[in-house]
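Explain this fold:

***
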Amino acid sequence: MKGLLYSIAILLDNIRKFFVSTLIKLILIMLIVGIVHNVIKMSEISTRYTGQYKNLEFIYDSKMMNVYQTSDGEKTVVILAKYGTESPIIQYKNLMEELKVNYKVVVVEYFGYGYSMGTDKERTNEQIVSEVKTALEQAAIPGPYVFLTHGLSDIYAMEFQKEYPDLVSGIVSIDPVYPNEMKDQTIKEAWKDYIVNVRITSVVEFSGFARVASYIKEDLFNIDKMKNNPEVFTNNDVNIYRQRIGSSYLTSTMVREINEAPNNLEKLEGYQYPDYLPTKQILTTYHNNKYQGYKDQGAKVTEDELANELISNSAIQTVVKISGDNTPEFSNPKVLVQEITDFLQSF
């Protein structure tokens, strides 16, 4: 009996040593990967890239934003990416390639996004709109502009329209957020949870998990879809995209932006598109499910109600629904481009 107990004790001790040893090894590996990731990150600052996608413009002091534009066209379409996009220029290339045939397409990368620098400036609607306007002016791109927005960026287009109505000729938004949703306590709580998740994830990013994931699980960043569409996305595009994931995944500027998001939404509470302004909201299956989820959790408002509250003239302001996940520019680009093109041709 003593022999059996002794054997069990030896076995348990060996198991303990194994797990302790394995844990130490994992910590060391994570530390090494984190150090390597941050060394690489330091070497990937925007000044090291000199290709076609980087066109930095001075905004204030020594801070620069990246502005990319295609050939001339009858209308100027300015793409404002959804929150947290590591490389707006690459992410929306599908749309740019189709639209640039008839329109001038411009991508403005906010501070902290793509090749734009980071900033300590506050991330209020007014500040971001001022930066976008300055970037367009510095790049010698005159208005009026049709804003093509995604997600949170729709709020900035609304603020831009409020401040500079003569410079906005239309807004087409993909899966927007709504100012009036902040009046609903359930959705407001969901925003708080999301912001906490972003803060935690941004801290964990030090380990370089996003960079590693872009190689071992390509579908997380739609790299698999990019590789399956070589006519649009070159190998160089994929490499640039991976570099931006490594360098621009939840930057400190992005974290400050999402911290300010609820306040930015509340400032525009009650906003309606002017009755002379053509607009189109393109809502995906993902968007519908998101707001249905809010409803199931007790929200008092629906997606349709929030969307229609923005409309003041249904003759030129519409809402359409398409199939697609949270990146329809990858999952359903043909239908998305058709909806955008139909809108641009309507005025």
